[in-house]
Specification:
- This protein is α/β, with parallel strands linked by helices.
- The chain has five helices and seven strands; from the N terminus they run H-E-H-E-E-E-E-H-E-H-E-H.
- It has helices spanning 13-22, 38-49, 92-102, 116-124, 135-143, and strands spanning 25-29, 53-57, 63-64, 67-70, 82-85, 106-109, 128-130.
Length: 163
């Protein structure tokens, strides 16, 4: 699906900032124990640079970054505020239904994931839906952390400073 094919319009920056500001617990569905995977990198950031309580969901794993991994959202000891999805797009409708069933308030789909139908169903269920955005990038954007990735370095010039 190209961006031209997208009928749904996601929340703007101010609303995404409000969503992140009210979120206290995040469940990462599709968590991986492989450092090369985006979910691992995002989890590392969330655990080290935020105050969120992070839960991992993956029925194939028992531990990620020293934390217990749960087989499903229903198995979590809490209702997560946000369900962050690192799964293929075909799996997202099922994750959405599970997120609705447990009472999560936000469904956040990682970069590259988009479904107008999922957005419609989620919003009709009263959820905030964010798609094709990275929680780590958005959190860093709103909390001054993009410099950690080389952004906003204060260098106005492409030339290296004289030594």
């Amino acid at each position: 699906m190209t961006t031209a094919d997208r009928a749904w319009t996601g929340p703007g920056p101010a609303q995404r900032q409000r969503i992140l500001g009210r979120t206290r617990t995040i469940a990462i569905v599709g968590a991986s124990d492989k450092p090369s995977r985006a979910s691992y990198f995002v989890a590392t950031y969330l655990l080290s640079s935020t105050d969120y309580t992070v839960y991992f969901v993956n029925p194939m794993l028992s531990e990620v970054l020293g934390h217990e991994v749960y087989p499903s959202l229903a198995a979590l000891p809490v209702v997560p505020d946000m369900v962050e999805v690192f799964r293929k797009i075909d799996d997202v409708p099922g994750v959405l239904q599970e997120a609705i069933s447990v009472g999560a308030t936000t469904l956040w789909l990682q970069l590259g994931l988009w479904s107008d139908d999922v957005a419609r169903v989620g919003e009709n269920a009263g959820m905030d839906v964010v798609m094709d955005r990275c929680v780590k990038i958005e959190h860093a954007r709103f909390h001054g952390g993009l410099h950690l990735a080389g952004f906003d370095t204060g260098v106005i010039d492409s030339r290296r400073p004289a030594r």
